[in-house]
Amino acid sequence: MRIWEQWLNARNSGRLPVVVPVVVYHGTATWRVSRQFADEVEDAPALRAYVPACVYHLIDLSGYRDDELQGAVMLHTALLTLKYIFRNELRERLPEILGLLRDLAQSSMGLDYVRTLLRYLAQAASIDRLSGDELRQAVTQTLSGGDELMLTIAEQWEQQAMERGIERGIEKGIEQGEARLLKQLLTWRFGALPAWVESQLAGAAPERLEAWAKRVLDAQTLDAVFVERS
User: Fold this and answer.
1) Cα–Cα distances in angstroms (integers) from residue 49 to residues 18, 37, 217, in the given order
2) pTM
3) How many CA atoms lie within 13 A of 81 on its CB side?
4) Domain edges within the chain
């Protein structure tokens, strides 16, 4: 819908362009959602003609071998990172992934990408899979100028988190990322958000963020997302 809106806003004429929906999945659980959209909608025989009959293209990274995740360096490293970010093999695969970035880190645009990837690794990798020290060691041993890269990233973490250890900084980064994502979903679903929603999201515990996120698609109103349930 967003693509079609942009197409129409650009004052294009004629029939709408074809849009192929794609889902890139990198979770640990098996993907069990039907690829046919209509299968996820309540079956009402008299209304079937009004239910969109479309499928999405599923890219389940868990089903691909590493040598199949080829492409340009940025795409290659992004796909490998997504594949292993929730797996215990992340620690042993990290030097290989970072090794692909050696040449990329020499250009300014490539360096920005490397910083972005490292921030994602620092925020999204749980402490039992990758500690801050292990990430720092892999970066400094694999990439030229790795010490400077890690210093730049470290400066962006809160001083309090650094004093308490890198573990808390990573945990807070994950919570902030979840809150930002939920805010985007709420905006797409209900439009501009009032101030009280911002207050609810600020500092909310991960379990509350998860509960609210599960209600976004089904809730008919913004209030229904945040209502307390016994």
Assistant:
1) 21, 13, 22
2) 0.51
3) 24
4) 16-63, 64-156, 173-230
